[in-house]
Amino acid sequence: MNFMERVLSRVRSERKTIVLPEVSDRRVLEAASLATAEGIADIILIGCCDDVAMNFPDISLEGVTFIEPASYSRFNEMTQTLYELRKHKGMTEEKAKAAMLDPTTFGMMLVKIGIADGLVSGAVNTTADTLRPALQILKTKPGTKLVSAYILMIVPASESAGERMFLMSDCALNVNPSAEELAEIAVASAGTWQSLTGTEPRIALLSYSSLGSGIGEWPEKVAQATRLAREKAPGFLFEGELQVDAAIVPEVAAMKAKGSLVAGTANCLIFPDLNAGNIGYKLVERLANAKAYGPMLQGIAKPVNDLSRGCRTSDIVGVIALTALQSIECIRV
Question: Which tens digits make up the pLDDT trace of 214-255?
Fold first, then answer.
C-alpha cells in the first residue's frame, strides 16, 4: 500500500468536512463529485446549487452540500464574528457583511466556527486570495513565526528505483527568505513530514554548492540556515548547503558529502528562494510525470491548502484527502 492509499484509507474511516469555494471551475466540481462518491470527505460547495446544475449538467453532485452565503441561517452570526475579529483593523459591520459574500472568506468562517474542518482553494484564485482571509480569520498556529508552503511530490517508480516521495518547500509564499526564515521553513517542514508520514524527516537545504564547494552569499545563507535549524530542532537531521543531486542520489552524495546522514537519502528539500522552489517542483512534476499535491500551507491554525492554477482534477482530490488527514492528525499547516 503506497502513501496515498494509506491516506485514503485513513480519511475514509474518519470522515471530515472540507470546503471548496470555487464552484465556477469544472475541475473543482469534478473533484467534489469524486471525493464524495469515493467517501474521502464530506464536501461543502459555496454557491447556488441550481446555478451549478445549469452550468455543469453532466457532473453529478449528489451528496454534496451547497451553502449560499446570503441565505445561510448563521450568516448574521458569522458576520458579527468577522467584525469582532477585524474591527481593530478598521473593519465595520457593513464591510464585514460585504466581505462575507466572498466565497473564500465565507468558507474560512465555516472552518473558524467548526462547521467545516478545512478548506481547499486556488484552482481559480491566487495564493494571496487564499492566504489573506486565512490569516485574518483563522490566524497562525501558536508559536509560528512564519507561514510557508510546501509541495508533496510523489515520483513514480522507475527501472532503477521504486516510488519516492519528497516534501519540497517553500514553493509558493516566501520570495527570498533570510537565513532565519529559511531555518523556520526547514523546521516546519520537518514537523510536517513527520506528522504526515510517521517516518523520520531527513532535511536537505539546497544550493548550488555542497558543504563549501562553492563560495558566495547564497551558499553562506543556506549554511547559516542549516546551523540555525539544528539549534532550533536538534532532534531532526538537517544538512546544508547541498546540491540537489548530492541530496537525493547516494552515489553523488558519497563523493560530495561523504559521511552525511542526510545526503543521498533526503526526503525534505528546502529551496533557497521562491524562484528555485517554484521552478524546481514544476520541472519534477511535468518531466517526471510526478504527482504534486499543493501548495499546502504550514503555520495556519486550521487546515487550509492552496492549489496550483494548473492543477488537474486528481490533484484537487489528493489535496482534499491530505487536508482531511491534517484535520484528523490535528496538524495545522
Answer: 888 889 999 999 999 999 999 999 998 999 999 999 999 999
Q: Which CATH architecture has domain 3-140+320-328?
A: 3-Layer(aba) Sandwich (3.40)
CB atoms within 10 A of CB 267: 21
Q: Residue 245, CB half-sphere, CA atoms under 13 Å: how many?
A: 7
Taking the domains of the chain in order of start, what are their residue ranges? 3-140+320-328, 148-287
Radius of gyration of the chain (CA): 21
Strands 268-270 and 148-155: unpaired
Single pTM value for the model: 0.85
At the second CATH level, the architecture of 148-287 is 3-Layer(aba) Sandwich (3.40)
Number of neighbouring beta carbons within 10 Å of residue 50: 10
pLDDT in tens, 68-82: 999 999 999 999 999
